[in-house]
Amino acid sequence: MLKGTFPVEKLKAVQTPFYYYDIELLKKTLGVVKAEADRYGYHIHYAVKANANPRILSVIAENGLGADCVSGGEILASLKAGFPASKIVFAGVGKADWEINLGLDEAISCFNVESAAELEVIDSLAAAKGRVAPVALRINPEVDAHTHAKITTGMKENKFGINLSLLPGILERLAQMDNVRLIGIHFHIGSQITDLSSFQNLAIRVNEIQEDLHAHGYAVEHVNFGGGLGIDYYHPNHLPVPAFDTYFSVIHRLLNVRPGQQIHFEPGRSIVGQCGSLISKALYVKEGETKKFVILDAGFTELIRPAMYDAYHRIENITSDEEVETYEVAGPICESSDVFGREVELNRVHRGDLLALRSAGAYGEIMASQYNCRRLPGSCFSDTI
Ligand SMILES: *Cc1c(COP(=O)(O)O)cnc(C)c1O
What we know:
Elements lengths: L7 H4 L6 E4 L1 H16 L4 E5 L6 H9 L3 E4 L2 H10 L6 E3 L6 H10 L3 E4 L2 H13 L4 E8 L21 E2 L3 H10 L3 E7 L10 H19 L6 E3 L19 H11 L7 E4 L3 H4 L3 E12 L4 E5 L8 H5 L5 E3 L6 E7 L8 E9 L6 E4 L20 E4 L4
Parallel strand pairs: 1-17, 2-3, 2-10, 3-4, 4-5, 5-6, 6-7, 6-8, 8-9, 9-10, 12-14
Antiparallel strand pairs: 1-11, 11-12, 11-16, 13-16, 14-15
Helix pairs in contact: 3-4, 5-6, 8-9
This protein binds pyridoxal-5'-phosphate (PLP).
């Protein structure tokens, strides 16, 4: 079996379960995304919700990306990691007053607004501080992302974004407000998108929306395409860096950029997904009647994606090269959804072996919980272990 490269002897000394991050791969990925974005002058804000581990955030900040935040906590974590406020944008359907006030006090670069009601609140909170809040409207473009139903966001009437039919009324109201200034339009159609035609459709739709805005006398400085580029969960060893080149070139080919306009992206998963693995110890090999189970010391408390989205993660036994056998790999949590894979081929497993759940850098550690009164997982890094 072709497996990832891990400093196995060093990992054996770390208390499991924990996240292991390949910092060289993260830096390589950041180098590629920046180089590809620079070709077209695109701006990148990393979507902090994918992984807010302080070390990961600081490596991303050092590489010059901005931060896309969806909570006050993420704004604070981003500032602490070294992202300048001028490169922080704030999205999310449920911004609390304290979070909006934090964004105003720190003078972040943009509030991505998801409803008329939120716009009113931002206007009044900004007025109370004698400030003018820069805002972008998150528009629901009605483009199908062809991805899992739990992570699609760009279709009609879901909680995200402003429906196209409501846009004219909101723009009219916005024109009467003194304490918000429209600087952009924002889109995010979903996550783990591997079919680039969804992004093609988005670019075409954005052209139509811009023409309409222009015809009504509105010009925006920023167009933000959100995130969503998928990664290859099946082949983390072959294709560790996502195809940012094709992604940006698809948008570049189709999008009509207006003079002076900035184009923004908010990738999360595609930046951090492949650099992280969840490392877990095999507690028991349990012989069933028809199959063998490996019971790990990690469960959905450490990595919830398989239980929540039926997501696939490649699993490797990094301490054995013995013959390959088929196992069901499960965690210790008292819920039947706590299964990482049902027919997993692994080098023969013994109690105490270390298993790596690959491609777990995005929506892994950050979604960990303490259900069953468990400890949160720790983390270690390839360059400091
Ligand atoms: C989640 C999210 C992203 C990042 O999505 P990925 O699929 O991780 O790239 C970007 N923008 C917004 C508004 C989001 O909600």
